[in-house]
Fold this sequence. Notes:
Blueprint: E1 3-8, E2 14-19, H1 24-33, E3 37-43, E4 49-55, H2 62-66, E5 69-73, E6 75-81, E7 96-98, E8 101-109, H3 112-122, H4 133-147, H5 152-166, E9 169-177, E10 182-185, E11 194-198, E12 214-217, E13 222-225, E14 233-237, E15 248-249, E16 255-258, E17 264-267, H6 285-290, H7 294-297
Antiparallel strand pairs: 1-6, 1-14, 2-5, 2-13, 3-4, 3-6, 7-8, 8-9, 9-10, 10-16, 11-14, 11-15, 12-13, 16-17
Amino acid sequence: MCRLFGMHAGRTPARATMWLLTDPDSLAQQSRREADGTGIGVFGPGGAPIVDKQPIAAYEDKAFATEARELESRTFVAHVRYASTGANTLVNTHPFEQDGRLLAHNGVLQGLDVLEARLRELGVMGLVRGQTDSERMFALITAEARRNGGDVGAAIVTALTWIIENIPLYAANIVLTTPSELWAVRYPDTHPLYVLERPSREGGDQNAPHPARLEARTRRISVRSDTLAERGSVIVATEPMDSDPGWRQMGAGEVAHVGEDLHVHSSAPLPPRPAHPLSLKDLEPRAASSQQSSAARG
């Protein structure tokens, strides 16, 4: 199962150190079964997206998979890919960039010929460089944002509603970022997605316990930040990354938006069930394998 990570650091950039694969002892064994690529996306001082990604089998390139990335941004997105659609190439590795936005996805869509016909109808098929369902879904979101004047939240809902109603779907968990905003979607309830709101001590009760240095870790994605020791932040991840009791699993169909104020605005605007739901047995072996949970895969 692909691993998603998103973080919003508020109104000013935060420095963070990130690792994409952090279990070197079992890395080779695990990656032969799972990891097909890793990537991180942030935004530079002028708001331009910066993406550092590579298609890998980690036993071939441990250095890239385990090296620390020193980053500074207001928003962050990271992804560890277990490929379901498309070859293990750079163009198929997440996160993807379109119109200055970044997206990473966990799940499977089918009926890509139908989706491509819709993209051609909307004049955005040229945005697609690779073979993945994820990039095609992103192109539909981008098309809807262009059509509605740049309202990304509305574009996500319109695009995903079209997908839910028109093509077979197993899961569509996404993290989408701009220089100042983050959206997360869990749909339907196939895969988990968690949110953690870390409070700020700045301007608040100085006697209240303040957050420890941000240090969150899984075998797949880890982050550490001294900058965010007392500043607030919001993290979205496929699994809880530490023992903080504030982690909550997003609801099925929940769309969460985080702006510069770090308030999480949640809604449930999507159809309650896919019109053409898929189960694991409906997927080809490679896609089915990619969607297995970490517990199932070991």
